[in-house]
Design a protein that fits this description.
heterodimer; A: alpha/beta; 2 domains; 6-stranded mixed β-sheet; 4-stranded antiparallel β-sheet; 11 helices; B: 272 residues; mainly alpha; globular
């Protein structure tokens, strides 16, 4: 299989000096530091095919950023191997980064005091982009990201949404084949999020750009990613298509029933009551063993039902479930 | 090779233009520097005059020679501050992850560090430098021969490289210590004392230190001693001091580049 990114047994070790409280503790840790080794990334392997949009998700401190930084050549791994477009970012950084576009949602690479276009001109020279190719590319980016309204505005006067669009355009100027987005929608309003998601879909469709996305916004993941990799405590805990992960993690569904009048016997052999509030009852059932309509049929024979609704499990629940079950690994 | 140089020159000139534009965004800030810097250095040379007039020459260096040395040290400081001021902020960049972006671009990291900010405000430091130097050259009887002018240019280039090497090496310590802001201030003071006043007035230990270990004596003191036939504190080298300065400069700069490269390997970025 053809791959863009190939990661094998990746480990990044940090040395942490344990501090004790108080002045006595400070002096003690100065003289006899208690150093402990800690693997921020602990044996990760995966490969990504060209044209995939992969959501790389996990709780804070799970090792997401560290992995991205090793993939892009910023950090050196303690062990393991990385190949991006067949090249190791550690031995040939300059060759690899030409093929990469990287956006850090919380930091900008644009010059604060200057109009947006000036930062683009600098990047044109840094990446040695041919003038006609640059003009064409910029025209396309301007069109899709709607930069024309603010390309001559100083970056410090841009709204967060505009700045993010500027940053994404800056990362795409040299037509990279892989785009890393580290929390690209953080702090943005619904409109700006929508624009950025559309852009990601568009470049993936029209140029076949591979996208690796870290985010805490699971709507991003649901709308964009065909595949997610979930990490926790430096290890991959799930890797696969989003639908099957949800299915696997949340085999339960919920049926909410509202009654006319109180009823004593609520039990049914097909589902369990997990919550009751006045006349409202929550039933949990396995979707493998009974369908919703069968359950409703069974319940309606014994209960005076007024209203009924089925709750679908969503990504958020699934992910929270993963974080919870892998937290103490 | 040629295309690489072209690439780097094109990027550096774009950065220089952007840096001017960025600095022009804050004209009042510029103006305050224009006011303060000359006051600082002209009062410095005035103090020197009072000391020499009231007491005696400093280890055989009379006022005209002192003025020449002071001016030469100041010019090389001024040019250094224009081109290499970013070597002062290596520790900031280590702490806040500022090297991330530089590492993501297909260019040499040290080049990007230095070229990304050309500090034109530093030219203000050169104004009192040039005035004091020209005055010193006049009263000390400096011979403006072609050979001497050539040597002077070599000395300035070498001196700037020595300074750049010193601040780069100090900044690189931050890759391990994470914080070394006060080192910059300390080094600046040390440089001022060793390049704007005659080294020969210090104890032998310091002279040796500033000649062989941290060779900042070559920035201005030894060349000035040669230009004016003044007391060099007993150091004698083959050829001329003015030719040793660029040589020492290049060696120091290469060593500092190696240290920086080694330090980068230890870079840990910052969580985001």
């Amino acid at each position: 299989m053809e791959t863009v990114i190939e990661v094998k047994d990746l480990v990044k070790e940090y040395i942490i000096v344990k501090k004790e409280s108080g002045l006595r503790g400070s002096i003690k840790s100065l003289l006899f530091p208690k150093k402990t080794k800690f693997n921020g990334v602990n044996g990760i392997s995966f490969s990504i095919a060209p044209g995939e949009i992969v959501g790389y998700i996990g709780p804070n401190g799970a090792g997401k950023s560290t992995t991205i930084k090793m993939l892009t050549g910023i950090l050196h791994p303690t062990a393991g191997s990385i190949k991006v477009c067949g090249i190791s970012p550690q031995t040939d950084r300059k060759a690899v980064v030409r093929k990469l576009g990287v956006v850090f949602g919380q930091r900008t690479q644009l010059y604060w005091d200057l109009r947006l276009g000036e930062s683009f001109e600098l990047l044109r020279r840094i990446y040695q982009i041919d003038k006609t190719a640059y003009d064409e590319n910029l025209a396309v980016l301007t069109d899709v990201l709607k930069l024309q309204d603010f390309i001559d505005t100083p970056v410090r006067q841009l709204s967060l949404g505009q700045r993010m669009r500027g940053d994404i355009a800056a990362a795409m100027l040299h037509s990279p084949s892989v785009l890393f987005l580290d929390e690209p929608t953080i702090g943005l309003d619904a409109d700006a999020k929508h624009a950025i998601r559309n852009f990601i879909k568009e470049i993936n469709r029209s140029r076949g750009v591979t996208v690796i996305l870290t985010t805490h916004d699971l709507d991003d993941v649901e709308q964009l990613c065909s595949r997610i990799i979930v990490v926790n405590n430096g290890k991959i805990v799930e890797d696969g298509p989003i639908g099957s992960i949800i299915h696997k993690l949340t085999p339960h569904r919920m049926l909410v029933v509202e009654l006319h009048e109180p009823c004593n016997d609520l039990t049914t052999p097909h589902a369990t009551v997990i919550k009751q509030e006045g006349l409202k009852i929550w039933y949990q059932f396995e979707k493998e063993s009974i369908t919703a309509s069968e359950l409703i049929a069974a319940l309606s024979q014994k209960l005076p039902i007024q209203d009924i609704s089925v709750m679908e499990p969503n990504v958020e629940d699934a992910i929270r479930e993963v974080y919870k079950t892998t937290a103490t690994v | 090779m040629v295309s690489t140089i072209k690439h780097y020159v094109s990027v550096a000139s774009c950065w220089a233009r952007l840096a001017i534009q960025r600095q022009l965004e804050y004209p009042l800030f510029l103006f305050s520097w224009l006011l303060m810097i000359p006051i600082q250095y002209f009062s410095g040379i005035w103090m020197l005059k009072i000391i020499v007039d009231r007491f005696q020459a400093l280890n055989g260096w009379d006022f005209p020679q002192l003025t020449f040395l002071y001016g030469l040290g100041l010019i090389s400081h001024g040019i250094f501050v224009v081109f290499f001021i970013n070597t002062w902020s290596i520790d900031h960049m280590v702490i806040n992850g500022g090297f991330d972006r530089l590492l993501l671009r297909p260019m040499n990291v040290f080049f990007q560090l230095v070229a990304s900010y050309v500090n034109f405000i530093g030219l203000i430091d050169c104004i009192p430098g040039v005035i004091i130097f020209l005055y010193g050259a006049e009263i000390a009887g400096f011979d403006w021969s072609l050979a001497n002018i050539g040597k002077l240019i070599l000395v300035l280039i070498g001196g700037i490289l020595i300074r750049a090497a010193l601040f780069t090496s100090l900044g690189t310590i931050a890759f391990w210590t994470k914080r070394n802001g006060s080192m910059v201030g300390f080094a600046l003071t040390m440089l001022e004392r060793a390049t704007m006043y005659p080294l020969s007035m210090y104890p032998y230990f310091l002279q040796a230190l500033f000649t062989f270990i941290i060779p900042i004596g070559f920035i201005s003191f030894y060349p000035a001693a040669e230009f004016l036939n003044a007391d060099s504190g007993g150091l004698d080298l083959p050829l001329s001091f003015a030719l040793w300065t660029p040589l020492v400069g290049i060696i120091c700069f290469l060593i500092a580049g190696g240290i920086f490269k080694f330090g980068m390997k230890n870079y840990e970025s910052a969580g985001s």
